[in-house]
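To whoever is on call:

I kicked off a structure prediction for a single chain this morning and the downstream step that reads the tokens threw a length-mismatch warning. I double-checked the sequence; it's 94 residues and nothing unusual in it as far as I can see. Pasting both halves so you can look.
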Amino acid sequence: MYKKFISALYVINIVSQAIFTLLTPIALGFGISWLLVEYAAVPSWIYAVLITLGALIGFYSMIKFVLSAMASLDRLEKSRSASKKTDNTGNNNG
């Protein structure tokens, strides 16, 4: 029961960080474009350019984050299974 709860927390953490990684560049693109339109008299088409650029950067960052998180979870599972194997055989490498 305890391990399932911890695993669920890991999944919630990864999903929330992935969503944050996706939405942050989009919000920054919107904020920067708003500042440029309001205070620098840039035409309003800059919204489309910077939000699209933010979405592309966000998707790239999200995919990179998810792949690295999955690789680290895989390494963690391999180290856990290796430590269980040494515990079951009675060998102690320490």
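Update from on-call: the warning came from a stale cache, not from the record. Cleared it. Sanity check on the structure: The CA atoms of residues 18 and 64 lie 9 Å apart.
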